[in-house]
C-alpha cells in the first residue's frame, strides 16, 4: 500500500516543468493524478499512462473562474473526489528582469491574475469539495524570492508573497473542515523554461548559487519530496506553513 493510494491529486500548470515533476512524484506514491494546463496535456497524460500511472488531463486556466469551475466539474464527474491540490501554475519563466519603472500594468495584472487569483480560485473550488469529505491537502508553490525581496521582479516577488499570506489565511479558515494548506518556496530551479530564458539565468543563477549553504544548481527532483510530504499523511498536523526548499539560501 503506497501512502497516496486511493487519493486523487490535481496539479495545475503540469504540462511541463515543476508541475509535471510533482504530478509524476505523487503518482509514484500511489495517487491518481489530474494534469492540467492552459491546454489539456493529453500527450503528457498518455506518456504517464504508458509508465503505468493513472493520469487524466484537463484544460484549466487558473485565472479564469469559469474555466476553474469547468475543470473541477470534470474531475467530479470523471475522476472522483479530490484529495490533493497543488497550486503550481504560475507566470515566472517568461519574465525578464525589469525595474519598477519599466514593468507595465498589463504584465503586472497578468502575473497577479495567474499567481494570486489562480491560487485563490482553485483553492476555493477544491475547498468546497474537500470540506464535504472532511479532509484535504492544498499545497501552494511559492518562491524563496518572497523572503529575499529579489530585485527586478517586483510583480513576481509580490505575487509569491501573497501566496504565502494566502496560505496562512486559508489554513485558519479551512482547518475546521480538515483541510491542510501549506506552501513550498522553491529556489531557482533549472526547469526547461528557466534554462531557455537567458535573462533569468544570467540575472539570478550565480547569486543563487553563492547564497546557498548547499551551493549547486537546483533541479525539479529537489522539490518533489517536500510537496509529496505535504500531500501525504505524515504531515497531517502541519498547516499554514511555508517550507523553503532552496539549498539553504533563505532560513526562517
Ligand atoms: N523554476 C523556478 O526557478 C521556480 C522557483 C520558485 C517557484 N517557481 C514556481 O513554480 C511554478 C512552476 O514553475 P516552472 O519553472 O515549472 O514554470 P514553467 O513556466 O515551466 O511552467 C508553468 C506552467 O504553468 C502553466 N500556466 C501558465 N499560466 C497558466 C494559467 N493561467 N492556467 C494554467 N496553467 C498556466 C504554463 O503553461 C506552464 O505549463 C510556478 O508557480 C513558479 O512561479 C519556479
UniProtKB/TrEMBL annotation:
Domain Ketoreductase: 7-193
Residue runs in coiled coils: none
Domain of life: Bacteria
Region forming the signal peptide: none
PROSITE patterns, A to Z: ADH_SHORT
Pfam families: adh_short_C2
Family the entry assigns: Belongs to the short-chain dehydrogenases/reductases (SDR) family.
Protein name: SDR family oxidoreductase
Species assigned in the record: Mesopusillimonas faecipullorum
Amino acid at each position: 500500500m503506497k501512502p497516496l493510494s486511493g487519493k486523487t491529486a490535481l496539479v495545475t500548470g503540469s504540462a511541463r516543468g515543476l508541475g509535471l515533476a510533482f504530478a509524476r512524484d505523487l503518482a509514484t506514491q500511489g495517487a491518481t493524478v489530474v494534469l492540467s494546463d492552459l491546454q489539456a496535456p493529453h500527450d503528457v497524460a498518455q506518456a504517464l499512462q504508458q509508465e503505468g500511472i493513472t493520469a487524466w488531463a484537463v484544460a484549466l486556466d487558473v485565472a479564469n473562474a469559469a474555466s476553474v469551475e469547468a475543470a473541477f466539474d470534470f474531475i467530479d464527474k470523471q475522476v472522483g473526489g479530490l484529495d490533493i491540490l497543488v497550486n503550481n501554475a504560475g507566470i515566472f519563466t517568461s519574465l525578464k528582469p525589469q525595474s519598477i519603472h519599466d514593468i507595465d500594468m498589463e504584465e503586472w495584472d497578468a502575473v497577479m491574475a495567474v499567481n494570486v487569483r489562480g491560487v485563490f480560485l482553485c483553492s476555493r473550488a477544491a475547498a468546497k469539495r474537500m470540506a464535504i469529505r472532511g479532509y484535504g491537502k492544498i499545497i501552494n508553490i511559492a518562491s524563496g524570492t518572497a523572503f529575499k525581496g529579489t530585485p527586478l521582479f517586483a510583480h513576481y516577488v509580490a505575487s509569491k508573497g501573497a501566496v504565502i499570506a494566502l496560505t496562512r489565511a486559508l489554513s485558519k479558515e479551512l482547518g475546521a473542515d480538515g483541510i491542510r494548506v501549506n506552501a513550498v518556496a522553491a529556489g531557482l530551479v533549472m526547469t526547461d523554461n528557466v534554462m531557455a530564458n537567458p535573462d533569468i539565468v544570467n540575472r539570478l543563477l550565480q547569486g543563487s548559487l553563492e547564497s546557498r549553504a548547499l551551493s549547486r544548481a537546483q533541479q525539479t527532483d529537489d522539490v518533489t519530496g517536500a510537496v509529496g510530504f505535504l500531500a501525504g499523511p505524515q504531515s497531517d498536523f502541519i498547516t499554514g506553513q511555508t517550507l523553503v526548499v532552496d539549498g539553504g539560501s533563505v532560513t526562517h
